Amino acid sequence: MAELTPNERARRLAAGAGADRLPCVPIVGNTAARVIGCRVRELRYDAALLANAQVAAYREFGYDNIRIFTDLYTSAEAMGAKVYAPADETAYLALPAIQEPGQIDTLRPADPQRDGILPLQLEALRRALDAVGDEVPVTAALTGPFTVASFLVGAETLTRLVLRAPSAARRLCDVALETTLRLAAAIMDSGGTPSLTDAMSSSTVISPRTFEQFSLPGLRTLVEYIHGRGKKVTLHICGKTQPIWPLMVATGADCLSLDNDASLATAKTAVGDRVKLMGNVHPAAVMLQGTPLTVRAAVREVVAAAGDSPKGLIVASGCSLPTETPFENIRAMLDAVREIGFPVNRENLPETHALAGKIPNSKFQVNRNTQIPNSKPTLNYPGAPRHPFTEGELAHARKFAVREESTRTHTNPFPTCSRVSDSPSVKGWPRSGRGSSAFDAAAHETPNHPGAAGEGAV
Ligand SMILES: [Zn+2]
Predict the structure, then answer these.
(1) Mind listing the pLDDT tens digit for each residue in 186-197?
(2) pTM for the structure as a whole
(3) How far is the CA of 392 from the centre of ligand 1 (A)?
(4) Which of 37, 154, 198, 199 is geometrically suited to a Cys-Cys bond with 400, CB 3.0 to 4.6 A?
């Protein structure tokens, strides 16, 4: 079968009509800047450039979904949080919108047509839709309400509120939800699909009970609203999610985008009959640090694990690709999926077992629960004098700084996985694993975050 456009492929797969290959979404974020040779910060403040970069990346690699995205902080920023955008790295949260829980009731939902850079993101969405919307789904990143809430007040404070002042935490989540609902509406008014990502709802960050009480209600409302407007929803949550898979399904999402911490084979058995699965090649150890050979082996592993998932599979990276991911590795992901074809025949996956244990960085060797080899957590705040904030502000910001797990084999020190640091312990969670702090155990979100696939991929 000749190569289909992503829209044709999605339509045919949804209709059970077969296709040329499985859908494939290497989750390209700011790597798009490299495709057109501009700096990462330029994408954040120039709608035309952002659209051009994402369209050019799609044309370069031929994947199945475009996502308009710069970083996770745009909604919180539109409500008053301060974001620092280094010249050529993904932006990060510098200060939450409020410094004290007592200020929660001063927060107002954002107006996506006016506040922060949300209008720019919407303009970029419209430009990308005009350029290639007839052939590929174009989505726009929508950060989940709980994650927005944590950026509004700081992760540490939100943790404290959840434990000691749940009603205040709920009011915070509610005002965050209102912003996300307005942004979802604006995205759909523009003709796009919201791409829902909720990093701080990860089970490496909060307990399933906290998820159920503080994150699930907002997600459910959001998904219901998006469904009401005729769009499907992919929900991406980073890091560990197995304890909350049934709750993620309970949000009503049509597709779960899972990180490399998850076993797709287990997910297939647990929830594959209810939702489509998307994932989960390691964005750093394989996509950034690996070779085309490694990438191909990892793709084959993913397809061997869940290529027969009842509701379908989208081959993807587990999270947003680090900015400096080699182009040849992105191409290798698409090539591997093309070679495997459709329908997937397990006999088409001979390398999976033959190569087990022989490929550097293969997930056959990297324990899913271990961190990326040779990486060291580094503060996202270099303390460099180029920031627009005072030292006092920065010192405060460090309390909830998102830490990045640098993979350091390429020049970009800000690749995929991050951590929220210096946060208080939460009794009883996580039950095992690294550290006693709920926020210490690899939040594994990238500022470079994915956002998952939208309607066409679902
Ligand atoms: Zn992620």
Answers:
(1) 999 999 999 999
(2) 0.81
(3) 31
(4) 154
